[in-house]
């Protein structure tokens, strides 16, 4: 297993307001977005905070653990500020998003939220609301997928004595396996990855101490003076191993990223230029770290979200349903076309697999396609990144999409295309 792991708990690019890249917007008809392999809710969060039009967001991921975290974070950000203040929301969000261990207050919130999510996911109607203007639609999910989600939420609130998650051992095992003989000099390996890879690829704000702490023990954000002692059960997942005798065995552990880190989603750059302190430097280094920027951005988005009252609907699609979606083989997918489609770098192969059906059936005229580049997948070398970018361009061209010049997006690990439907 490489440094990225087998499950994408967070993306490898900063959050975007996706509606900014849609040409025509109506105050009456809802915008339709399809997000594939997002990994986290950063783009959804950013988009909903800054969009006033009615909007429908369809989500397609590769693992149900990611759906579970999506629902947790969506419930959190839409909770009334009369129940949870903005600063407390921000702390819960970033801790649960990124830290292998959380404080006891956040753990208590997780248990309470899990109970509410169980009630929602077992709702026979399949639809529920996180706010008066926010509807979550799980009617397309299979019954076994809903059952699995309920099981995840049950695990989140279960006492550790009954179902333990030995997060520290799980992390240490992954790091030892990944580094091999370099484990005893791991701090040097961490520094090399930071300075020769992350810095070289554009993430110069990341502080050596915060990155080193995360690589060492999975603690990305230190936001309070409390101790982070409780395992973050949302980062647990099952991975199937094949034994020497050929039998397969599922084992719960931490199987996510251990090399890039969760800082990119909200910590690469400030979402606006309102605060000059966020760009201030000393000795040619940023004063504000990735942790500072992450907290600043999340608080800004939470604040903007309070001002929105547009109608929002978020639809979860079944796992592996891309073929059904792109062939409209099921009635529920007929006439479903999108104004924008975003694909994370872990699932771009869908373009190649579905071919022209991808664009002709589910992309509206002048639809936007945004692909996440694997720039920050540190196990990839420079020549591999160049080859993959060319492959993205070829796949997009094959489905009738034309690359658009946007150096800012490319710098931040994205390519943007327009569908030219005749």
Automatic annotation (TrEMBL):
Main location: other
Keywords: Cilium biogenesis/degradation, Cytoplasm
Similarity comment: Belongs to the DNAAF3 family.
Domain called Dynein assembly factor 3 C-terminal: residue spans: 136-309
Matches recorded under InterPro entries: DNAAF3, DNAAF3_C, DUF4470
Taxonomic classification: Eukaryota, Metazoa, Spiralia, Gnathifera, Rotifera
Alphabetized PANTHER family for the sequence: DYNEIN ASSEMBLY FACTOR 3, AXONEMAL, DYNEIN AXONEMAL ASSEMBLY FACTOR 3
Protein name: Dynein assembly factor 3, axonemal
A Gene Ontology biological process term: motile cilium assembly
Location in or out of the cell: Dynein axonemal particle
Pfam families assigned: DUF4470, DUF4471
